[in-house]
Predict the structure.
Amino acid sequence: MRNRKNLFAGAAAVALLGSALAACGGDDEGSGSASGDALDGVSITVGSKDFTENILLGEMLAQAAEAAGASVDNQVNLGGTSVNREALLSGDIDVYPDYNGTGWTVHLGNEDPSQDPQELYDVTAAADLEQNDIKWVGLSPFNDTYGFAANGDLAAAEGGFDFQSMADYLQANPDATVCMETEFPDRPDGLVLWEEATGYELPRSQTKILDTGLIYTETDKGACDFGEVFTTDGRIQALNLELVEDPGAMILYNVSFTMRNEVYDANADTYDEMADTILEPLDEDKMAELNAKVDVDGQPAERVAEDYLKEIGLL
């Protein structure tokens, strides 16, 4: 497993942040008292992308804002990246969760993103604020990037894998296979980064193209030796899979809440506290655990988000 930054200082610190959230806001419009009305009189529209993790994050923010007194138009599960981004820029929504690697490469059209999460956040946030008046609020410890998982039995027999040992195994075992989504071999943030890092060009004979869900189940069963995954997907923990350790080859996708700056400025302290309280406990294990409650256990995203907010003291 990759090294993680644990920005969470403990349950007591989160509880203090939750208490402070109700009191913050100062003289900003809609500021309130410790009774939980920091956003009293504020109307806010919250969107999200249409996959589990982003839905959960959108639900967390929507429910936390409502608990702080805001009138919330919940547009969570709005659609894909472009739908949410266009809605944000046009003012149809006020905020949605997005990933710093997406911001730097897709929204801002840049190349060569930093491999330092804080640096990537800083340059992305500064550029998007200057160019588009969009504020990036908070930064998650978890990095939900592309990666690979090995069949768990194979990983146990081989003592685990990193990118290079995965490549070495594939080169030494021509019958071994890697299962991937259709677009992954051709994405600039996909297979090419693994090939550049390892020096091994994966032949077509070792490639299987499958739908996303099948990659997890087929790798679990051993029909694929390795599968392309998203590193915080809950199915990794639930199935017979083990992440292949990334030395830093793949683009970083830590998450922030992207917000129209005029909305942010009206209650900046409150939104800062809210975003930090929600995001700081979310390392990769915790985010995967929450994703699994939806994707594996079948719990509604709204309830998983609510339970998490209670756990960290925001509800």
User: Anything to note?
Assistant: Confidence is low (pLDDT under 50) at residues 1-35. The two ends are 32 Å apart (CA to CA).
